[in-house]
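Crash report, auto-generated. Payload:
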Amino acid sequence: MSFEPPLEKYSVKIREVAWGHGEKTVRTGGENALPFHYFEGSLPNLAVLALEIVDIEPENWAPELIEQYQDVVSSPAKWAKKCVDFCGANAVCLRLLSTDPLGRNASPQEAAATAKTVADSIDAPLIVWGTGDEEKDTQVLTEVARVCAGENLLLGPVLKQNYEQIAKAAKDHGHGIVAQASMDANLTKELNIALCKFFPGDKIVVDPTSSALGYGLEFTFSIIERIKQFGLADRDNMMLMPILADVGVESWRAKEAKLNRDQGILWEAVTGLSFLLAGANILILRHPDSLRVIKEMITEC
Amino acid sequence: MALKGADILKKLPKTNCKECGFPTCFAFAMKIATGGAKVEDCPHISPESKAELEAELSPPIKLVTIGAGANALVVGEEEVMFRHEKTFFHEPGIAILISDKEAEEEIDRKLKKISGFDFERIGQKLKVNLLALSYDSGEKAKYEALVRKAVETTEMAFVLICCDTDVLFSAAALCAARKPLVYPIGKENLSAAIPRLKELKVPAGVYGKGLDEVIEVASALRNAGIEEMVLDSGPKNMLEGVRDNTLIRRSALKKGFRPLGYPTITFPCFMYKDKLKESLAAAAFMTKYAGIIVLSQPDEHFLLPLLVYRFNIYSDPRRPMTVEEKVYEVSNPDENSPILITTNYALDFFIVSGAIEEAGLPAYLCIKNTEGLGVLASWTSGKFNGEAIAAFFAKYSVEKKVKHRKLIIPGVAKKLKDELEEDLPGWEIVLGPNEASDIPKFLSEEWKQ
Amino acid sequence: MILIGEELNVMSKKIGQGIKDREAGPIRECVAVQVKNKIDYLDLNVGPVKKDPVGTMEWLIQTVQEITDTPLCLDTTNVAAMEAGLKICRKKPILNSASGSTESRQTMMPLAGKYSCSLVLSVINDTGLPSDADERAASIMDSVAYANELGIANEDIWVDPVMMPVSVDQRQIGAYMEFLQMLPDIVPGAKSLCGLSNLSFGVPNELRGLLNRTFLVMIDRLGQHSAIVSGYDEELSRLVKGDMPEIVKLIHQTMDAEDIDVSSLSEKERQYVKTAEVLMGRSLFSSSWLEV
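Recovered output after restart:
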């Protein structure tokens, strides 16, 4: 009576996206099995854990977070460096809040210069993120693409409303993109179809839009699981892109996260781990301890 | 592998005799599939087919009850690998460990704290379900004293963790009416345990080193007529636990493999000393099929995220989640602050309230109960029209909260504007943005007060 | 296939205004076009009208019955308006709709018994919308049994499985087709009705017709008795009234997963094939389904 464990094998794999350049290159995706199912398939690339930095004085951040970074918050380059060298981040996400038209409304040129400085100062790949304002992001991200040519950044968020220009600039200057659709598998597919008409499919990462623990987490969780199923099980070519989850900004917005150090870290780490278990390949986090603890646990043998 | 009506039909006589009360055998089969009829209602089915059907119809994962009365934990009878396929049905139980080696005051403190926990979210109670009482002292009297104290001072249900079979069952006898889970039942103590399990009628916590051993022990128990058990395959870390739980769930659901057709019990408390890691492992097991999760200590800051997480993952994706109807105050509004209104569909609430908070402008957010329907659907069904909103305003005395008379409504509800101008005389109805994400821009540009 | 034209709807700007002003012109125009397209019933949707629902229903029925004999389908949640309407219909009308919910059983369903009309009975019950075919079956069997007790025979019941938008939950399309085929066995003699336009809710306007028409052909094959459709869509009517047999054949072949040489097809035919493919659930729906 020998028990045969019921293993499941898929005949396709998630597209592998290479970003960063030279020695900083990182590969994302490439798996042909469900998250952490090393026992039945191949998952060649560990999840990429990125820490988020912003290019203005952080507003409304939990005191716990400010404490971690107060020696570096005034310099994006220093901050990025600390994230990589000291906090163990595999990548950095630079959120260009200075460009917010309702805030400082910094110019695309200023933002691009910051991005270049940050890219040059770290030994890790860089994600550059706009503010979500469709028109401003178009100007900003296309300029960032141009100025950082060759860095092979991941640029986001790329939306249905502005993908043509940003993806073209990304293509011209050798970057990848993060295509964002709001919690809807059909829209995710639609955007990918539109992009793949002119943009390489193996340089697209998708972002289904994250919600935090207690504030809609289960919607994101199930969308991510479904995207993975459409890709691996149903072999839908337009759903085989790796997945990114922007966890830090959402989790630390929760009032529960700000009340207590451990609770805050767990609020973020549980959200992040949940999305990894669903199938996310890249996480953007804020607290170095969330990153550390997730990293240690997913690399255990 | 829940049987479908079409599969059930194959074993029925297919004469459409109507004696079961349904017009056709197919209709009868459909009712059996959804639990509205029993196989035995058919007077003409053969005894073999009846036995086969009843065996196939029994849920692939056994329903197990630990405890009794209002505080009983019920786990099992799950049907899917992914919550989006249908839903997860029974939330895993959270158990907190108390060792008989601890000082009396510490034991008292923990018992009081754990049984006094009162977490709530969106009107739902989030429960810590079980006490895990662990035998570490080596002294039978001490362990029995701990169990007695737990019985006397709490109403909770128990997991008894004790490596000495004799002590385990004499402790179980002290609280048998509360149906404690007795753990571990493994290869070594099977023959001693079986008669005691049958006598006390308590569920068994099976331990096996790896899946093969679990199958061996579970099969022996099944053959001896023991029906309720939970399984522990002894994984040593989070990833192994995810693997084992997944394979056990798959074996039960997709292969109908009965020896693994039981809920699992997991022990993050023994896997990790670091409390953050223990909590993360617990979250991972909640995501991946665990029936019981045992934690090391009752710290509310580590517990709350897990309780909320369990609540989120086990919510039914088929039913819209709703939030409480009321006038929410965002960032301390005053009499000059803007008033917005929308439905009580949880996702919309989170997005809209999040957007308002981001705008940094204090505001009142009126949430109207529409039973989870979104703006347009609830307007069509009369739950979010002029009349209904006017009634809301009266009920919650909205007029008294502000000096101005402007109400911001969701941009997609254009038809609502005209109705409200009639039903809320004296109020200016302002059409807000179509997308919640435009609320910050809208409030800072359009709201001039 | 019985077609019920949906264009007389208070939510439409022109018709809504006409109803509000008691202006017969737009109503008559609308009726004329639908009748020309061989619509079998006219749906009168006064849905969420607040002012004088009874008077509105009566006026609308009178206005329509002045110019046509086409039987009517009365569409409102207002019980008083429904009853007033049922009283004055010349030909046997359809009551659209009742459900298995307690409230509907007590207020709407009995009207069908009282006025001997046809009854649209949806699968919705007190717990909401059933999530798969088996649950729909359980729900409708209970509702139909209750209706029988009120003196309403299966032959007068038109079961509505409730059409969900393909962009919201594609799996419900398969559940719909599965449930449809169960009907003769679980509620023998009962008919079926589909609110077809819901299928394409949320899809860009220019693509909605194609989705609706394709699905209608598919469920026609599976035994669908009637559908509430766009009364202005001439091609839809032609498709199910036997005027476009080649397209219908292609759709059937797609349903059966037969090999079709797409290169030999016209653009229109290719679109119908692709649409049938996606409605069969063979790939994830997106609004760009024709481009893949």
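Post-recovery validation: Chain C has a mean pLDDT of 94.
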